[in-house]
Amino acid sequence: MIRIFSDYESLSLAAADLIAEQLRKSARDRGQVSLALSGGHTPRRAYELLSRDSYKIPWPKVDLFWSDERCVPPDDPRSNERMVRETLIDLIPIPEKRVHLLRCAGSPRHSAEEYDIFLKRYFSENGNSFDIILLGLGEDGHTASLFPASAALSEAIRWAMEVQRPQEDFYRITMTFPIINRASLIIFLASGSQKARALAQVMDRSADIPARLVQPINGQLLWLVDQEAAAELHVNAPKIE
Ligand code: 6PG
Asked: Backbone phi, then psi, for 147, in 5-degree steps?
C-alpha cells in the first residue's frame, strides 16, 4: 500500500502518527515492542515529531534498533546512531538498556556476526521479529545498506552483514532480508524528486532494485511518500492526502 502526501512535513507527521499508534498498540498487547530505525536524512523530521510527549509512547517498553549503521565513530556526522540520538533518543525517556547499539568495534565482519547473534537471541526470547521496521529508499533503489549487486542481497542465513560501497572508505553493517521480511510492519519513507525513479521502479516492477526485495512474509508493507517522490508513478496512484 502507498500513501502520497503533499510535502515532507505532512509525510513526516503521518509517519510519526502511524509509528506512535503502532508502538502504543504493540506495547499494550504484548507488554513490549521492537522498533528498527533507518538512517539517512528522510526520517529525521519523523523522529523529531515522535519525541513529542503528546504521543504518549511508552518508551520504557520499546526496544530500539538500527536497520543499518556506518562503521564510523558514534559522534561522526555520518553516524546513524548520532542522528537518532540527536532527533529522538536524547529527547525521550527510553532506558539506555533498551537502546541496542550497532557499533563496529574492531572488525566489520566480527561486528556483523555479533549483531546477527544478538538479533537471533533477542527474537528467540521476544517474538519472531520486529514489530516495526522503518526503511528509506536510495536513489539507486537500495534500502538499509543493501545495495545493488551486493552479495548481501542473496544472504539467506545471516541476519546482519558487513558491506562496503566502492565509493566509501568505511564499512557498513546492515540487516538482511531474512530478518527484515519477518517484520509485522515495514514502513518505507521516501521524499523528494531524486527518489521518483527508484520509487516508480519499485511500484511498476521495472527494475530489480534492492527495495523490491522487501516483501514481508506475514507482515504489512506501507510506503509513505511525498508528491515529489511520487512524480513518476503512473496509473492508479492514490490521491494526495
Ligand atoms: C543509511 C540508510 C539508507 C537510507 C537511504 C535514503 O544508513 O544510509 O539506512 O538506507 O535510508 O540511503 O537516505 P536519505 O533519507 O538520506 O535519502
From this structure: -100, 155
Which DSSP string corresponds to 178-219? HHHTT-SEEEEEE-SGGGHHHHHHHHTT-S--GGGG---SSS
Domain boundaries, the chain: 2-226
CATH entry 3.40.50.1360 includes domain 2-226? yes
Q: Is the CB of 41 under 6 A from ligand 1?
A: yes
Rounded to the nearest 10°, the torsion over CA 3, 8, 44, 166 is 80
The pTM for the full model equals: 0.97
pLDDT of residue 54: 97
Which residue is listed with cell 527518489? 195
- At 78 the three-state DSSP class reads coil
Is the model's pLDDT at 32 over the cut of 90? yes
Assess contact for 80 and 49: CB atoms under 8 A. no
How far apart, in whole angstroms, are the C-alpha atoms of residue 12 and residue 43?
7
Q: How far apart are the first and last CA of the chain?
A: 14
Can you tell me which atom of ligand 1 is nearest the CA of 142?
Answer: 10
Q: Is 112 in the pocket of ligand 1 (CB under 6 A)?
A: no
CA distance 153 to 51: 33
Segment 76-82 shows an average pLDDT of: 97
